[in-house]
């Protein structure tokens, strides 16, 4: 499993980012709000990773911090929510908004 990656941002095409680590470019899907918080292309960054291994290949989901990944994994526990839907939820709500909605049961 891949837990995190540190490397240079090669491209940003939301919701995907390509991060080059030791000469290898990793395609990583991220929440849209997180992509906007990344430094510019060419900069180094650190991402927390959740990987999904499937028959057709490995998918990488990236997050700015551990809190985002924890929320993503909590969403995956909800019946009927897969990685794409969980990413969509995190793309439309910031972490503080998400926590407030859960806390207030909205």
Automatic annotation (TrEMBL):
Q: What residues does the DNA helicase Holliday junction RuvA type domain cover?
A: 1-62
Q: SUPFAM superfamilies in the record, alphabetically?
A: Nucleic acid-binding proteins (SSF50249), RuvA domain 2-like (SSF47781)
Q: Has the keyword DNA-binding been applied to this entry? A: yes
Gene Ontology MF terms: ATP binding; DNA binding; four-way junction helicase activity
Keyword line = ATP-binding, Cytoplasm, DNA damage, DNA repair, DNA-binding, Helicase, Hydrolase, Nucleotide-binding
The record's Gene Ontology biological-process terms are:
DNA recombination; DNA repair
State whether keyword Transcription regulation applies: no
Classification via InterPro entries: DNA_helicase_Holl-junc_RuvA_I (IPR013849), NA-bd_OB-fold (IPR012340), RuvA (IPR000085), RuvA_2-like (IPR010994)
Protein's name according to its UniProt entry: Holliday junction DNA helicase RuvA
State the organism named in the record: mine drainage metagenome
Q: What is the lineage of its organism?
A: unclassified sequences, metagenomes, ecological metagenomes
